[in-house]
Design a protein that fits this description.
Layout lengths: L9 E6 L3 H6 L7 E5 L9 H14 L6 E5 L8 H11 L3 E4 L5 H8 L7 E6 L2 H5 L1 H5 L4 E6 L1 H8 L8 H13 L3 E4 L8 H14 L3 E4 L5 H8 L3 H19 L5 E3 L2 E3 L1 H22 L1
Parallel strand pairs: 1-2, 1-8, 2-3, 3-4, 4-5, 5-6, 6-7, 7-8
Antiparallel strand pairs: 9-10
Helix pairs in contact: 2-3, 9-10, 11-12
The structure holds ligand LIB3CWND and magnesium ion (MG).
Amino acid sequence: MQNVAHPYRSVLYIPGSKTRALEKAQGLPVDAIIFDLEDAVSPDEKVAARELLAETLRTADYGPRKCIVRVNGADTAWGADDLATFIDVAPDAILLPKVEDTATVADLAARVTGDTKIWAMMETPRGILNAAAIAAAPKMEGFVMGTNDLAKDLGSRGRAAMTTSLQLCLLAARAQGLVCVDGVYNAFKDDDGLQAECMEGRDMGFDGKTLIHPAQVAITNAVFGPSTEELELARRQIDAYEQAKADGQGVAVVDGKIVENLHVETATRLLAKADAIKLLEGA
Ligand SMILES: CC(C)(COP(=O)(O)OP(=O)(O)OC[C@H]1O[C@@H](n2cnc3c(N)ncnc32)[C@H](O)[C@@H]1OP(=O)(O)O)[C@@H](O)C(=O)NCCC(=O)NCCSC(=O)C[C@H](O)C(=O)O
Ligand SMILES: [Mg+2]
């Protein structure tokens, strides 16, 4: 089941070390932000980035955007202090990199307080194979596909080689009602390529896509948001099904296609997603 309470069409990474980008994001129309302390921050900037980010999240206003902090791994020199700092800052979620099993999630789940949730980067072969167990771990809310790291570990090239991994994670996420967002599109000046990959991710079932540059936001929001035609069809399906029920029928027909209870559920969810987007954009 897809999550509609908060949309996650566009999920923008911001290096925790970049003051200007941290400021700029307060005005960008993104659904969520991943404040990154891991791969986007060089080793000699890690400690300063942690301090800058903690101070920023304590004082800045990111409005309705969900604030997710990606910490360094527990096996690095910075992971433990990152966790200690951001458990205290209490963002909407803490994103663990390269999650391979439930142990790191369970450790963090025992330490976070309040409403802070846990997200996991799914980006290693072991992690993907353990996706079902990781999704079921306590306080888990979302998966982020790490397609760059995964390609590195698989020794693969191109999207086609990712299909099984993407689908395994989607299955595991949906089985537990988690959010699941697709990996980044590295060529951030290639709008046509981004649009094609967004459409592919949307059709597979992802809630949205992770992004690396503000120029990628508009296309992503458009592709992962319901279109006017889809909303109009959803309303007609619901009306036709209500009429069929009133006439003692279990099935309606709209545009030559059957509409059953399950299609009405999908249509209702689409309308709820549109309402959630409207609410977010009006906030
Ligand atoms: C890719 C970039 C290095 C490009 O940076 P730059 O050359 O500075 O871009 P621009 O000059 O075009 O920037 C224009 C303005 O936009 C702001 N900006 C740029 N990027 C961001 C951002 N991500 N968030 C917010 N604002 C941003 C600039 O400050 C400029 O502002 P202004 O001064 O007002 O004009 C750069 O975009 C970048 O660093 N992107 C993020 C890279 C990143 O986070 N990488 C790590 C995540 S990807 C990953 O690890 C995936 C996963 O783990 C896997 O394995 O796949
Ligand atoms: Mg990665």
